[in-house]
Amino acid sequence: MDEVDRNIAPQLATGILYGVGVGPGDPELITLKALHIIQSAHVIAVPVSHVSAESYALHVVAGHLRPEQHLIHLHFPMVHDIHARRESRRAAAEVVLEHIRLGRDVAFLTEGDPLLHSTFIYILSYLPPGISIEVIPGVSSITAAAAQAVTPLVNADQRLAVLPAAFEEDTTLRWMFEHFDTVVLLKVNRVLDRLIDLVQALGLDAQATLVERATLSEARVVRPLSASRGQTVHYLSLVIVHTKRDAHGT
CATH homologous superfamily of domain 16-138? Predict the structure, then answer.
């Protein structure tokens, strides 16, 4: 995580910044507290990857917004240039701070949970001390996918690991499969066939499940994982691998 940007001068902050998790996609999985904050906030902030992009989180809550609420789109470009990424995060923090200093409560919406692979985490590093921040947890894609597949994650003394597959080498994944009972792999859409090769080589294909767009009407569960070879899957996809045959911890 980047250091706090002290160049953003702290001023008297009267508004509150809320990090609000809106869940995995099904609007009925928005928590009651999240709904209360979303409907009462003066400002709704949504992250987008580019200027013309739509916000998935905004789509989830669209039916609950009030016409008088101020909507802001915060640009978080998906680029390799670390300086460009940092500048976009600093700029987003400045926009949020401007509203907070005017006494407005800001609800920053995120898919899933605000503190699990979320753009909300990025701006925390650029907020000065003295800002009132509250985090409203949301249903994560991990638990939503397990529910969609009706497959346990861990129980009793079992161990769980969560990794972004697109950024991990096969050697790391092999080690995780050896040392954890369940491994959840995120960001799998671009490396799916490579993952299939690996789980097949380790004899785990039948215990590996692809879950795509969990909780939505388009949701899909594929097991064994090899049945999805060569397919193009949505970015809202993950893979659950049970490394032991007994997934229930009995």
Answer: Tetrapyrrole methylase, N-terminal domain (3.40.1010.10)
